[in-house]
Write a structure and sequence with these properties.
Number of strands: 17
Order of helices and strands: HEEEEEEEEEEEEEEEEE
Shape: globular
Length: 199
Amino acid sequence: MTHHPKLAALLALALAGVYGAQARSAESVVTAGAIACSIAGWSNDPDPAGLNVRAAPSTTAKIIGRIPPSQAQAGDTYGAEFDIVGSRDGWFLIRNARFADYGGGKGDRVLFRGPGWVFADKVRFLINSADLRSAPSLQAPVVARLRSPDGSSGPDSAIIDHVYGCASDFAEVAVHMSNKPPTRGWATRICSNQVTTCP
């Protein structure tokens, strides 16, 4: 095959442009105005096409990725997990989306590095603190206790009805225990592990 230096140089420039555009696209994700968060969750979107990841916290923003729907593994079905690093207007800013390896021995499968925005109410997690508070602070008044009257079930059995946002290591949710009405408030000790509760 004949070597063409000019063609090779043009191809190199074209590839640099493609990779540069991808880098600029990742950098163009809107992060301004986000409240900083430090929690994790998993996709609860039933859409077979997956959960849309957008460049800004809006349904009209460009789709820059998709988190696949839940997949079978080790005799059960698990959603893709991700770190939640910000919140704005009912949306979560996420990074490091992956299918966690629950005993398969193959390691986690990375799906989307991020950052990008997903609709907060399409995300779920476990709650490990029984105290639901009026604000994202351990000093805020308790608005509900997430445990059954007989003490047989605790916050990790709470049913999340809606997810609204997050701040620091708190998530704003509407949540209820079995046979109880939902209460809106701020929960902490959020866990994204779908097999067991977090420490």
